[in-house]
Amino acid sequence: MSDRTSYAYFEGKIVPIEEAKVSIMTHALNYGTGVFEGIRAYWNQEHNQLYVLKGPEHYERMLQSCRILKIHLDQNIDQMMNVTLQILRQTGYQEDVYIRPLAYKADPLIKVKLSGMRDELAIFTVPLGEYLDVNKGLHIGVSPWRRLDDNAIPTRAKATGSYINTALAVDDLMDSGFDDGVMLTPDGHVAEGTAANLFMIRGGKLITSPVSDAILEGITRALLLDIAQDAGFQVEIRPIDRTELYVADELFLCGTGVQVAPVTKVDHRPVGDGRPGDKTLTLQKLYFDAVRGYNPAYQHWLTPVYPENR
Ligand code: PMP
């Protein structure tokens, strides 16, 4: 892969990635006024095909983030998907890929505001394997850094600047010896992981926090709720207390990067019997089969990158 040229969409054109450069005066670089997405494409060796997972849904969420930050793009969802497929084809990937669209305030302006600026769209891609371990079971801690408040920096918007909150939490958790962590809402409920949503199994039910508890409205979260319901799980969306994590039967994190990662310890306490839970592993298998194109029932979540019979 390393000898291949990687391409990016930048200022209206597809260019070699080294040419996609911004000025140090760019508003988004100075003030964090950008929004982004993280999309995965999964390589299926048997099908000789690369599948983009939930591409239109990610672009739809990006347009929602844009509304919150008053970013106006010329491109619609179809156009952004087409550019994405073009970049992937042009780079010629035959491996798992991470796609990073970024919409940002591009003017070289020294003034903190949102309106009246030039907005740009960039899209680049990188090969990506696992972001967190999905096999061993993670040891997570509850972060002393609280998740952002909707009335301060809305977590519903996947904004570049808001990831300072994530970075502070992740570094602190890693320094304390955890693999990752959980962030609490300003009023002390479980919000989500640092860059992932959280699910717990308690009393046989699959439970996750509501969208009003300072989470990013995860595409994987929604996808897993669908998979779980199809598989006959009872699901519940409700606020989760911190100590419920200590008495949960199973826990896992989920997200585009994280995928489905079992958690086996929280704040030094074992989750259940301290091994990845059976229900978690069932959902994880259903997830991986779906995203790699092995489950026809979920094929509509995938966009093939390469033409058939090439
Ligand atoms: N929460 C945060 C803060 C995230 O950064 C992510 C990753 N995008 C998620 C949740 C999971 O969202 P998704 O499943 O859409 O990737």
In summary, what is this structure?
By secondary structure, the protein is α+β, with helices and mostly antiparallel strands. The protein contains seven helices and 17 strands.
How would you sum up this structure, described in words?
It contains seven helices and 17 strands. It is of the alpha+beta class. It folds into two domains: 7-127, 2-Layer Sandwich (D-amino Acid Aminotransferase, Chain A, domain 1), CATH 3.30.470.10; 138-291, D-amino Acid Aminotransferase, subunit A, domain 2 (D-amino Acid Aminotransferase, Chain A, domain 2, Alpha-Beta Barrel), CATH 3.20.10. Strand 11 (197-202) and strand 12 form a beta hairpin. The two termini are 20 Å apart. The model has no long low-confidence stretch (mean pLDDT 96). Bound molecules: 4'-deoxy-4'-aminopyridoxal-5'-phosphate. The site of 4'-deoxy-4'-aminopyridoxal-5'-phosphate has 13 residues, from helix 5.
How many strand segments? 17
Q: What portion of residues is helical? A: 25-40%
Output the structural class: alpha+beta
Radius of gyration over C-alpha positions, nearest whole angstrom: 20 Å
Look up the CATH topology of the largest domain: D-amino Acid Aminotransferase, Chain A, domain 2
Question: Which spans of ≥5 residues are poorly predicted at pLDDT below 50?
Answer: none
Mean pLDDT: 96
Principal-axes shape call: globular
Characterize the main sheet: 9 strands, mixed
Give the bound compounds.
4'-deoxy-4'-aminopyridoxal-5'-phosphate
Q: CATH-wise, what's the superfamily of the largest domain? A: D-amino Acid Aminotransferase, subunit A, domain 2
Termini separation: 20 Å
How much β-strand is present in the residues? 25-35%
Secondary-structure element order, N to C: EEHEEEHHEEEHEEEEHEHEEEHE
